[in-house]
Design goal:
The chain is 45% helix and 15% strand. The protein has helices spanning 13-25, 38-46, 76-83, 101-110, 153-165, 175-203, 209-212, 216-221, 229-238, 240-262, 267-285, 311-321, 349-361, and strands spanning 5-9, 30-34, 52-54, 66-69, 92-95, 117-121, 142-147, 169-172, 299-304, 328-331, 342-346, 365-368. With 370 residues, the chain is of the alpha/beta class. The strands form three sheets. Strands 3-2-1-4-5 form a five-stranded parallel β-sheet, with helices on one face. Strands 10-11-9-12 form a four-stranded antiparallel β-sheet, covered by helices on one side. The mean pLDDT is 89.
Length: 370
């Protein structure tokens, strides 16, 4: 099936990014969008991301080949009841939520299985809203598809082709398997990061020294705590059982680590601690160096530069001369892991690699993260 028209219910960060990516990869596809925010629709129309704007739902909105549900998860039940009588035959119905079990249950209840393919683009940002959307947000990110058993192969093939066309990586999973996997690699880490940040907040003294020097490793492992509180509250409410099971395992693991610390300097405890860090390092180092999570990969490097006037300006000038754009630049005050004194962030992997090659040719010492 050839997709010629896409419709979006909700045009926030993810919906907007998908719409931008589709329009960039396949300009001939007509894009419709409904959103309660008229300014969002106006901006998207002015930028050419969408062809038709709908401040209210009308029957002709549903004349499309694929309909993306991009409104908040809590609205899905209501939206599905309202749209099921308007869907065209062979229209692909999909969503973008990071929890799939709840919507699959509603799809079953509403008799929409023959057209539903759950979708989860594993990309995101600490920022929200259409104004922060980007077609690049989805590049090289896994885009998980959870089709029902009754979806025709032709519809699934068409959706996969569309996803691949804008640079994402389609991956088909059973929706229950999806929820267990994302609980482990996304949902639980957000809980851990947020609880760790709050632990430091509650442990800090009046001078706020912990906050002052919380850079380097601490900022890296807690970066995802800057995500939307509303979104993560909803995720915990919809994937509760999987998160609880994995959280129990994690608590047991932490308790065992505490017991091993209590037993020091016993040889068994020393061996355990070494194995803890060694196996974690080996497994972490085996991860593919690609962005496929809810927070987009940061393309940054650290440079050794002298603490003297003009160091930052000289570095920036070298990159500017070779048309390498800098997204952010700053001095590293906390360097407990041996990073360089100057941190430079780029917009994409290509810019980062070009900068690394250029600066090394000019004898800069550079540290990069995996």
């Amino acid at each position: 099936m050839e997709i010629t028209t896409c419709a979006f219910m909700g045009l926030g960060l993810i919906g907007g990014s998908i719409a931008r990516a589709v329009k960039k990869a396949k300009p001939h596809i007509q894009i419709k969008a409904f959103d309660i925010n008229r300014q969002t629709l106006l901006l998207a129309k002015e930028e050419g991301t969408i062809d038709e704007a709908y401040p209210s739902l009308k029957p002709d909105f549903f004349q499309c080949d694929i309909l993306f549900l991009c409104a908040p998860v809590s609205k899905n039940d209501e939206n599905l009841k309202n749209i099921k009588d308007y869907l065209q035959k062979d229209c692909i119905l999909t969503d973008v939520g990071s929890v799939k079990s709840a919507i699959h249950e509603v799809i079953l209840k509403e008799g929409l299985e023959p057209c539903f393919i759950g979708g989860h683009p594993m990309a995101g940002s600490e920022k929200t809203g259409y104004e922060n959307s980007s077609p690049l947000l989805l590049e090289n990110a896994y885009y998980i598809l959870t089709p029902t058993k009754s979806v025709p192969k032709e519809l699934l093939d068409s959706y996969q082709e569309l996803v691949a066309s804008f640079g994402a990586i389609p991956l088909i999973l059973d929706y229950k398997e999806h929820d267990y996997i994302t609980a482990a690699i996304s949902h639980l880490p957000h809980i851990i990061a947020s609880s760790l940040v709050n632990l430091v907040k509650d442990s800090d003294r009046e001078k706020g020294l912990m906050k002052l020097i919380a850079a380097g490793g601490f900022k890296d492992i807690t970066r995802i705590a800057s995500s939307s509180p509303v979104m993560w509250q909803q995720i915990c409410m919809t994937n509760t059982e999987n998160i609880r099971l994995l959280l129990d395992d994690y608590i047991a693991s932490l308790s065992h680590i505490r017991d091993m610390l209590d037993a020091l300097p016993a040889p068994a405890s020393m061996d355990f601690l070494y194995s803890l860090f060694d196996t974690a390092k080996s497994y972490r180092d085996s991860f593919p160096n690609a962005s496929s999570g809810p927070i987009k990969k940061i393309y940054d490097i650290h440079l050794e530069v002298p603490d003297e006037a003009g160091s930052i300006a000289r570095t920036s000038a070298i990159l500017a001369e070779h048309r390498i754009s800098i997204k952010n630049i700053g001095i590293m005050h906390n360097r407990e892991f041996g990073e360089g004194a100057l941190r430079i962030e780029f917009y994409d992997e290509g810019s980062k690699q070009s900068a690394v090659k250029l600066l090394r040719e000019k004898n800069f010492t550079i540290h990069t993260s995996g």
